[in-house]
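2024-03-11 09:14:02 INFO queue: dequeued item Flp pilus assembly protein TadG, len=178
2024-03-11 09:14:02 INFO validating residues
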Amino acid sequence: MIGFIKNTLRRFRNGEEGSVVVPFALWTPLMVGIALSTIEMGALTIRQTQLERALDQTIREVKLGTGTAYTPEQLKQSICDRANALPDCMNKLQLEMVGLDMRAWVQPPATVDCIDTALEVTPQRTFEAGREHEMMLLRACYKYRPISPTSYLGSTLQTDAQGYTALVSTGTFVHEPQ
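2024-03-11 09:14:37 INFO prediction written
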């Protein structure tokens, strides 16, 4: 009986069947994590690029639309119409516009005005329409949920209590005279 067990254990130790399973089991989580991080980075890049481009186009429209006073909702609608890769844009985008005095410089607030996903309605906190020849800072903050929050990249993104990550785009412009 003991001889049978010894022979079986010896054959098991010397056998090479299934030797690929161990490296496969060790490398698979790493490869899946890299693949998910690649997808997450691609989606993040597309969203950020769309937000930047839409904000730039909207700022150009504001600069050239002399004499037109835009409301936050009109600017938000303009950005969302141009950014197709931002789902639920009208509800997840918050705009902040402040005037910058170049002669008596005061640093704009470092914290970005984003929506509070815990509230049903986020009030518009900072939005100054500006006047002719005034330098304006327009910041757009879009919140979204990462595709895979457990991936290597997704787990490093800063999120709020509801799991949303913020993308911020900033632009400056001067109101042209009428």
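2024-03-11 09:14:37 INFO annotate: Residues 16-175 form one domain.
2024-03-11 09:14:38 INFO item closed
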